[in-house]
Amino acid sequence: MQSSSLHIKQFKHDIASPLSVLKTMIQMNDSWNDSDKKVLSMALKRMEKIVSSLESKEEQVNSSPYHLIEQVLEEKKVEFKDKSISYKFSFSTSAMNSICHIQPSEFKRVISNIINNSVGAISESGLIRIKGHLKNNKLIISIIDNGHGIASTDVSKVLDLGFSSKNSTGLGLYHAKKVISKWRGNLKINSVFNLGTKVSLIIPITPSIKALCA
């Protein structure tokens, strides 16, 4: 346990320098427009928060999943701008205004990993849809792609630690399931091989002041 803690401290120490260099380069590079700089700065801040969370536990706060997903999508459009992928982001009005008691950085990490999986499942051109609606005081967020899908024999295993249908760590969906369960939520996966995959996040919403006073 002590060895693991030392490794984390060393990693945090070592990563600080390249992060600082990247931040300086963003500020100094005049070839990027303001929109690109904004997205890159957001990505760097997210990296810093991930590194920071290695030792200290991020607190759960009332947050807007809709706005957090918006920020992640801005990053992804830059990250995967060389790929022929379209994004469709549609939330119902009630879902758009919903507040959930979550860890914002962890939530963005979960959404980022799921979108990365969708991008990886798309061979050439494709579509990733992110939909949100309310049901029984829960926000249901669905991320749907038309990629290669998951074999029926593997669907039940994709949430297991270390399992991966490709050459990766197999941590993304396991981490997502673990984090969402801490928020009293759930994660479901439906997939049809060669047609696509749907990942659904089900998270309790925080009652609004208006609802509490009704």
Relative helix content: 40-55%
Mean pLDDT: 82
Compute the gyration radius: what is it? 18 Å
| CATH homologous superfamily assignment of the largest domain | Histidine kinase-like ATPase, C-terminal domain
CATH architecture of the largest domain: 2-Layer Sandwich
Task: Please give a handful of descriptors for the protein shown.
214 residues, alpha+beta, Heat Shock Protein 90, 2 domains, five-stranded mixed sheet, two-stranded antiparallel sheet, 7 helices, 46% helix, globular, disordered C terminus
Please outline what is shown here.
The chain folds into two domains: 1-56, no CATH class; 60-213, 2-Layer Sandwich (Heat Shock Protein 90). It contains seven helices and seven strands; from the N terminus they run ααβαβαβαββαββα. It has helices at residues 2-28, 34-52, 65-79, 93-96, 104-121, 172-182, 209-213, and strands at residues 61-63, 85-91, 100-102, 126-135, 138-145, 186-192, 196-204.
Explain this structure to me?
The longest helix has 27 residues, at 2-28. The model is unreliable at 209-214 (pLDDT under 50). The chain has 2 domains: 1-56, no CATH class; 60-213, Histidine kinase-like ATPase, C-terminal domain (Heat Shock Protein 90, 2-Layer Sandwich). With 214 residues, it is an alpha+beta fold. Helix 1 runs antiparallel to helix 2, helix 3 crosses helix 5 and helix 5 packs antiparallel against helix 6 (172-182). The chain has helices spanning 2-28, 34-52, 65-79, 93-96, 104-121, 172-182, 209-213, and strands at residues 61-63, 85-91, 100-102, 126-135, 138-145, 186-192, 196-204. It is globular and about 45 Å long. The strands form 2 sheets. Strands 2-4-5-7-6 form a 5-stranded mixed β-sheet. The chain has a two-stranded antiparallel ribbon with strand order 1-3.
